[in-house]
Every structure is written in structure tokens, then in C-alpha cells.
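Quick one: structure for this chain?
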Amino acid sequence: MKEVLIVTEEGRLDNYLSDMFENISRSHFQKLIKSGKVLVNGKEQKPSYTVQIKDKIEFEDIEETEILPQNIPLDVIYEDENMLVVNKPSNMLTHPTANEKENTLVNALLYYCGENNLSNINGNYRRGIVHRLDRNTSGLLMVAKNNKTHQYLANLIRNRLITKKYLAIVKGVLKDDFGLIDKPIGRNVKHPEKMAIVEGGKDSITEFRVIERFKDCTYLELNLKTGRTHQIRVHLSSIGHPIMNDSLYGGGGFKIKTQEQVLQSYKLEFAKPFDGDIITLCLEPDEDIKKALRFLRAN
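Got it. Here's what it folds into:
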């Protein structure tokens, strides 16, 4: 089965594919590209070729297993004829991977919407998925029901016309009430399952605001200006304030037990597709955040 992707962000061909398929290495895609098994707009290209927005990438599906609908309850916060916004729980993958093909958000969406009512721009494993949340990050996530809406929402994200705000509790006490972290992010060469601050990486900007300070922690609101993989987690770790219980980026060791990182996508604001009405959605802090705050305020 052939996989077809429509490019939504400029970048190197090999990097674009490895970012889309996080469980498959960049070197594997480089081999596929060099062997002529990846086509861009019907032509062979080099791994370093810069793909442009709306380019069509074709290659043999490396994830051939069919993804099945599953009747998993969804917390739908907003829905119209073109899209929906769901509250993804912690400990749920946004989409299937080579190792996990069940109990993901996409499985639930296939049951709720039907296969023909989800965009397929990002391939069969990412039906409807415009942007992702990490497995253990809960909160608001947009889903496109068709390709036209997918491109519309991707364009809003690319041009920074969507407000995406998060809540997090981090290690240590931040002195400044407000701040901005502007550091490029790329794949960690030594540990490919991680991202890192990398010279020549993708521009990445995160704003933060202190909500509350504790003895050895800080409760933050974060405004995501760009949307890189693990961006908030990498940025906060890079300034010495990893997210509570984020074992991958140095935030482990807390007495409070949570699913993993205490991080929630709690606010979205965007223009409704094709009519411009402003949609503002906001969630209460999730159970992990409430649990951590109760502990910190009591101690």
C-alpha cells in the first residue's frame, strides 16, 4: 500500500519524514530516498532536498497494518461540520506507531467519525491529526474532518494565528514573573528518542508566566508560539527547570506520583474554518495538576 503525504511545513526531505514517523530513524529514510523509493511530486530527490508546502510525497507504506476503529470514549469539547477539538487524556498516544496500533486517539476517532470523515494528508496512521500531544500530555487537540480543513488549520499554526496555552509544574523556583525561551530544537543525536537544543535546529519559541511559586517548584502558564516535538519539555529543561515527573528530560524524583510529566494543553483560541468566528476553549486543570497543587500547598 502506498503512503501519500501532503507537506505542511518546509524542511529537508529526510527530516520531514523522520519527524512525521517518530519511531523510524532518519537514516532509514535516507536509505529509502537514496534507493529511489521516495518520490516528491513524482520525482526522485536527495535526502537534503527541501520540500515545500503542498508538495506530495509518495512511498511504499512502511506501516502496513490496518488501523481499526475502537469504541473508546472521547471527551469532545467542540465540534462543527469541519473539525472537532477533543480533550486527550494522559497516557494515550495521539496516533499509532509501528509498535502500538491500538488504544490511540486515532483508533477512537475512526470509530467516532468514520474513516471517510477524517483528513488523510498526514497518512493513514494520522487520520485527522493536525498537531500532536505527547502520550503523557493531556488536553486540547484539534482534529480535521477533511483535507481542506486540515490545510486551513495547518496554515493557522504555521503562521502563528492559533493561541495554544499550557499549564505545567516545574522543578525549582523561577525568579522572573514572565519570560521567553527562544532556542532551536532538533533530534538528540546520541538519544534519538529525545529532542535537544541543537545549533541549526528548527526555530522554537515558548513564553512563560508564573502563576504560583512554592518552596522548590513553580506553577506556570506557557504560550506555545511554535509547535516542535517535545518543545515545552526541552525548553524548560534547558533553563534548569524540567517539568515535574518528566523522567526523559530530568524532572524525575518527586514524591507526587502522576502519569508522567505534569503538563496540560488547557487553552485553544482560533478562527473557525471558513467563516472567521473566534473559538475560545479552556479546560480546568487536570487531575495530575490538581493532585500536585494540593500536595505543594499543604507542604
